[in-house]
Q: What sequence folds into this?
């Protein structure tokens, strides 16, 4: 917590570069509806669980 307060108080602090993520899945999004490059779209789903006591 003290390092956070220090960084907020001192704007000239240089932050280290972030490391590469452990994994990365790149997705391409197209605004052209006729584009057939990526048709693996998923629909929205909703599940409701009602809890009951014993």
A:
């Amino acid at each position: 917590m003290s390092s956070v307060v220090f960084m907020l108080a001192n704007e000239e602090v240089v932050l280290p570069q972030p490391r590469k993520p452990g994994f990365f899945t790149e997705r391409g999004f197209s605004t052209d509806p006729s584009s057939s490059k990526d048709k693996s779209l998923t629909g929205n789903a909703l599940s409701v669980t009602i809890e009951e006591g014993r």
Notes: The radius of gyration is 23 Å.
